Amino acid sequence: MAIVADRYAFVVGVDTHAAAHHYALIDARTGGVIDDRAFPTTPAGLGRALNWVIDRTGPATGGLVEQVLISMEGTRSYGAQAAVVFAEAGYRVTDAPTPKRERGAGKNDHLDAITAARGILGKEVDRLADARAGQTSTLLQILLTARNAMTSERTRAINALTALLRVHDLGIDARRALSSQTITTIAAWRRRAGDTPAQAAARTEAIRLARRVGDLNTDVKANEAALRAAVTEAMPSLLEMVGIGPVNAAIVLATWSHPGRVRNDAAFAKLAGACPLEISSGRRHEHRLNRTGDRQLNRALHTIANTRMRYEPRTRDYVERRTAQGLTGPRIRRCLKRYIARELHQHLATMT
Hints:
Blueprint: H1 4-7, E1 10-15, E2 20-27, E3 33-40, H2 43-61, E4 68-72, H3 80-88, E5 92-95, H4 109-118, H5 135-167, H6 180-187, H7 197-234, H8 246-256, H9 265-271, E6 277-278, E7 287-288, H10 295-311, H11 313-324, H12 329-348
Parallel strand pairs: 1-4, 4-5
Antiparallel strand pairs: 1-2, 2-3, 6-7
């Protein structure tokens, strides 16, 4: 199987930051540095960076962008806009491998850009992690990021409200988790004339927290509706699969991104951290939990597996059969996540 050094003439390593990106152009066959330069992250700066790459690779490749690979750090954060610019120009943009630095070695933007380029030379072409692309993937990622922020803030507000009610006697039994009805009741409270200054302050803060929870509940529902609409437009059949709602479907689609990014179901399972890692030694043949990969996608598979274990007859029969064979619940769930990853990839492969 061909590696990057055999397939491409040039590799551009990109070290991304908020204000400027550093680019290093190297010869893919020798690893030698041809040139390097920093450009600002403004639209004009990204355009200049693109022209810089074209000017230095065009004469040698006859203008063939297929001969140039962009190995970029932070394609989902600082480098997101640069990745779009180069992808729209026809270049293949991949996530740079995690840098491996020698102990005691220095670092700077120049060296990091070179490392991003050289670190990918020995990688197999078909195993590169292509950057996410497409308007659908970008839209879903924005909505999912917003949802994570909202649900995290809501959890913090509920926890703060619960702690407040357990410390101050405001007439609410907070020994157990607060119900949505209780939170709604607190949000409708008014100040009471008989409260001490401490009670009045506690009541005011409780009202504020309860109302904030209510606002966040409304925002989360609107976010879920937007996710459902986006998934329905992109691939409505995904929502018809057992155990997959709009949020998990959005996570799967955003991670998969576009046809060709994930080469097969094994790669998709590895991306999700759902492929078992062998730990066999001597007569002992075992596999352990894989804690690598996209943890958000892994969580989605976990949720789908739990739902199917409860409600899908086929999965419940499988659980009974594997339990009779001596497998524990966690091991059965890990097996299911691998099967679900295969099923999802096969389904996504039908998308053009």
